[in-house]
Amino acid sequence: MRALTPDQRAAQLFMVAAYSNRKRVDEDSISALIKQYGIGGLIFFQGGPARQARLLNRYQSQSRVPLLVAMDGEWGVGMRLDSVVKFPYQMSLGGETDTTLLYDMGREVARQFKRLGMHVNFAPVVDVNNNPANPVIGFRSWGENPAAVARDGRQYMRGMQDAGILAVAKHFPGHGDVDADSHLALPTVRVDRRRLDSLELPPFRSLMAGGLGGVMVAHLNVPALDTVLGPSTLSRPIITDLLRTEMGFKGLVFTDAMNMRGVISMFEPGEADVRALIAGNDILEFSKNIPLALRMVRAAVDSGRLTQQEIDVHCRRVLALKQWAGLNHYRPIDTRNLYQDLNAPHAQFLSHRLTELSITLLRNQKNLLPLQRLDTLRIATLVLGGSPRDTTDFQKAVADYAPAAHFHASATPTLDELMKLRAALKPYNVVLVGLQSLGRLPATSFGITPETNLLLRELVDQKQTLVLSVFGSAYAVAKVRDLDRAAAVIMAYQESENAQSLAAQAIFGGIGATGKLPVTVSDRYPRGFGLRTAGSFRLRYANPEDVGLDGRLEARVDSLVGRALAAQAFPGAQVLIARRGTVVLRKSYGNQTYAGFGDVVVDPKKKNPRVVGNVQPVSVPRPVRNDDLYDLASMTKLMAATPALMKLQGQGKFSPDSALGNYFGFLRGTNKADLKMRDVLAHQARLKAWIPFWQELRKKNGEMRRRYFRADSSARFPLPAAAGLWARKDLPARIYKEIGESPLNEKPGYVYSDLSFILYPELVKARTGQTFDAFLQKEVYRPLGATTLGFRPTNRFPLARIVPTEVDSAFRRQLLHGTVHDEGAALLGGLSGHAGLFGDANDVAKLAQTYAWGGRYGGQQVFGKDIMAEWTRCQFCPDNRRALAFDRPAANPTVNSAKSASQSSYGHTGFTGTYFWVEPEKDLVVILLTNRVHPTRRNNKLTELSVRSSLLQLAIEAVRK
Predict the structure, then answer these.
(1) C-alpha 256: how far from its chain's center?
(2) Which pLDDT does position 885 carry in this prediction?
(3) Do 812 and 602 form a contact (C-beta atoms < 8 A)?
(4) Phi, psi of 284 (to 5 degrees)
(5) Which of 299, 252, 248, 251 is nearest to 273 (CA)?
(6) What is the distance in angstroms between the CA of the first residue and the CA of the last residue of the chain?
(7) Can you give the pLDDT at residue 616?
(8) What's the confidence (pLDDT) of residue 700?
(9) Where are the beta strands (DSSP E) in 642-718?
């Protein structure tokens, strides 16, 4: 300190506001203050991480004494900077009991601060918000109970300071019980000293006892502590007498921003700064006029209002803090991988997990949640508030569980809009309402408008089941009239992506509701209230660390898939990995096609259908999205035929110990009549692997015979084989006859065969009177909410969502888009038990998880537990690795599993580049959907690169506990 002049020592006590989203002239003005006056520090506000890092490197290079850098990071760096993970608001965390996660959050926030070259966090807020009318603290507080505020604030503080970032508790002596905003006016705390000692001050005392490094003093008029009207930031009785002497605080004292009306409404800039130093503050934040303030401080010293000794005491504390922060070994910020470092997997995990624990269930009539029997529900979502342009994260999360119609209304709809909305919602028996874009101010009823209340009342009057999710202040609940007429109410506290997703997960049972209210909302809903529900009812969506997996799993999968994309093993893919019923990775990669491949059409004017050419050739292919549908190819056997047979077995309509001839009359008297179903399903019944049925339906020149195909559909040609190509209705009977007449393999043993699976739709129809697809939708897919699974996808989904497969140059002579890739299934109109099923990875996961959970999902025993165990165990080991229909690990693990896969694991691969595998010993489900046959099936790089096997291996290796 001796190297600094008196004026330079005074300058060390000033922190100037800096932004990384402003113009160069603003940046240069900060540089001027650093170079000309030697200010001691900066507090950064809005901007972006990379921009701030570059700017701070510049500022530090211009400062003789390294700058002390701070930020208001109450919920992390993301509070101020874009592109950085945000942690939940303090109030949403105030009802949680697992405070160890708050310590972890503090450490993670500190890691973010250090990565950005910052040293001080103006957090935590330890104001006790016992006044719902408080216009400025509210959601920023841990709650209304002093002990809980102290407990939570102390854990957050400890985490930050243990990781090397100074925590600054605010807003001393307590900003929780006011009805004015100190940014706009000077609030008065109208309580006596006894009340202050019992409610406002205990959290500060607790944190000080735990080693708190900093306190921020608020702009408050507190007559019980200082009888002179004025802000506490300028009060010597409050700062020196109470905070320093009586409470024994040894750390640094910071003012709240000195540009706020709570202080400058009474004293001009410069004079306010002098009075703040006289009162005992160490660092003045956001002074409005630095040159003026420094001149007036010098004048105050010269006049005797301040002493140089007082300035030196403050300066010594500042320099000691800089040394503690490591600024005596200052290094510039390394901007490489900055975004990835700030958004590390552990940060994502903590933010999501803390939000999950906060979700509070306030009402649950007749145990409505989690929703039961999806196949009986007609679900609509209604978002009130926000922009109508996009589907919200809440609505997207609902769609992950079940089909739903999505609606939106403004917070203040007209009467005509209300009536139209009511009519539009009438067909639905369950309406999931999300209240969004809610305000934070009591004066606006926290965003709950009269129109909102009217609409909610009208919905309830229609006898519809209403589930209300509140994405805003806890106090907003009290403003919702007729709240008790809703069947269920969820308090989500904020409108983050995590909060919206987790509210939906609580509704459907992906997670259990465990949160508790941190404040009293009403007599019915006091602090600590919260109903509980169980989770693991359906799929949960979270992060690898939630289920004991390495947080680096996603990066490793990215690398694997990236290498495959670079090698053109496939143009795009969907990957899903789940553990213990929790989806930890669900991601789409690449594009649906390569550039230049658009849809093709056939010329109906020609006698024989043929390709005309591309329609609007694709120069920029469509990226793969999570809800795109893939041709599942041979996975159809396990995702359609197998569940159908297991359902029939549970209904007493099928047995693996019967014979083929018992189920197919046209096979009686053939060489297949006595084949045992157990042998057939294990692929050791000597059936041929496949029959190229389509080859005999074309001429020698390769063109298709007109007697079997037409360019337009009709009663004689009703079966869609491709775009503009319809097959004759008797082709299925012809195929069945060929199967019946086909010879058996000469030698016994394992030969993977399509033939019996082609027949199973007929078995289902004969035993149930329902078509194969109708039976599956009713008995399996709709109960699971897996409604992208199905045949003939263009009947249900837009073509843009269906991923194309091969450019078929031999048979259909076009890019196959929306129709099945397998030739045999195409001749059956796309409906078969061996191929033809389409779906997305999320819905495949629902069925695969049902298998992993012993046939149970969504509260229903979809398949008998004993039946599941029978079908997934090896039937004829060691001679044949197969279970019933399910594949099991091959001797060469790269064929279908992985080197670390257990012998109890099972799954299947599909010809088009699809894959699912269940690893019971690690409780894993792994899914990969690709269109590796695009543009040609001769592309075998997926297998050559062992992508499927490597993906499973990565998942297994990620298991930590």
Answers:
(1) 35
(2) 98
(3) no
(4) -100, 120
(5) 299
(6) 52
(7) 43
(8) 81
(9) 709-710
Per-residue pLDDT reduced to its tens digit, 349-368: 999 999 999 999 999 999 99
Average of per-residue pLDDT values in the chain: 94
Task: Determine the Cα–Cα distance for residues 346 and 343; give it in Å rounded to an integer.
Answer: 8
Q: Is the peptide bond before 878 cis (omega within 30 degrees of 0)?
A: yes
Of 910, 764, 757, 739, which is closest to residue 833 (Cα–Cα)? 757
Distance, in Å, from the CA atom of 850 to the CA atom of 859, rounded to the nearest integer, reads 11
Name the helix (H) or strand (E) containing 906: strand 906-910
Identify the CA nearest to 798 among candidates 627, 950, 914: 627
Question: What pLDDT sits at residue 441?
Answer: 85
Copy the structure tokens of residue 819.
């129709």
Q: What is the pLDDT of residues 800-858, one digit of tens each?
A: 999 999 999 999 999 999 999 999 999 999 999 999 999 999 999 999 999 999 999 99
At CA 417, angle to CA 414 and CA 418, rounded to 5? 90
- Rounded distance, CA 864 to CA 653, Å? 14
pLDDT digits 0-9 by tens, 194-208: 999 999 999 999 999
Rounded-to-integer distance, Cα 794 and Cα 798, Å = 6
Secondary structure element (H or E) that encloses residue 719, with its range: strand 719-722
Residues near 650 by beta carbon (within 8 Å), at least 6 away in sequence? 863, 864, 867
Q: Active-site residue 183, yes or no?
A: yes
Phi, psi of 828 (to 5 degrees): -95, 15
With pLDDT > 70 as the criterion, what percentage of the chain qualifies? 98
- pLDDT score for 598: 59
Q: In what order do the strands lie in the sheet with 725-727?
A: 709-710, 725-727, 719-722
Nearest partner of 293 among 256, 322, 254, 267, judged by Cα = 267
- Looking at residue 241, the DSSP 8-state letter turns out to be I
Other beta carbons within 10 angstroms of residue 653's beta carbon come to 15
Q: Reduce the secondary structure of 526-538 to three states and give it as a string.
A: CCCCCECCCCCCC
Rounded Cα distance between 249 and 270, Å, is 27
Token pair for residue 24? 């160069």
| Beta bridge pairs of residue 121 | 71, 167
Rg (CA), the chain: 34
Catalytic residue among 72, 256, 631, 843: 256
CA dist., res. 252 & res. 263, Å (int)? 20
Cα–Cα distances in angstroms (integers) from residue 956 to residues 493, 925, 961, in the given order: 36, 10, 11
Supply the DSSP symbol for 743. Answer: P
User: 């609007």: which residue's tokens?
Assistant: 616
Quick one: which H or E segment has residue 206? Answer: helix 202-209
What residue ranges of the chain have pLDDT lower than 70? 598-619
The C-alpha angle with vertex 206 and arms to 106 and 45, in degrees rounded to 5, equals 40
Phi and psi (nearest 5°) for 434? Answer: -115, 120
pLDDT (tens digit per residue) in 483-542: 988 999 999 999 999 999 999 999 999 999 999 999 999 999 999 999 999 999 999 999
Strands 430-435 and 252-255: unpaired
Does 256 qualify as catalytic in the annotation?
Answer: yes
CB-based contact 888:882 (threshold 8 Å): yes
Reported residue count of the chain is 961
pTM of this prediction exceeds 0.85: yes
Please give the backbone phi and psi of residue 762, each rounded to the nearest 5 degrees, phi first: -70, -35
Other CB atoms within 10 A of residue 412 CB: 12
Would you put residue 434 in left (φ > 0), alpha (ψ -120 to 50) or beta?
beta
Q: Which of 7, 162, 179, 183 is catalytic?
A: 183
Q: Which residue has the tokens 């049925």?
A: 693
pLDDT, tens only, 4-37? 999 999 999 999 999 999 999 999 999 999 999 9
Q: What per-residue confidence (pLDDT) applies to 787?
A: 93
CA distance 852 to 866: 13
pLDDT at 889: 97
Of the candidates 527, 487, 504, 479, the one whose C-alpha atom is nearest the C-alpha of residue 359 is: 504
Q: Name the 3-class secondary structure at 684.
A: coil
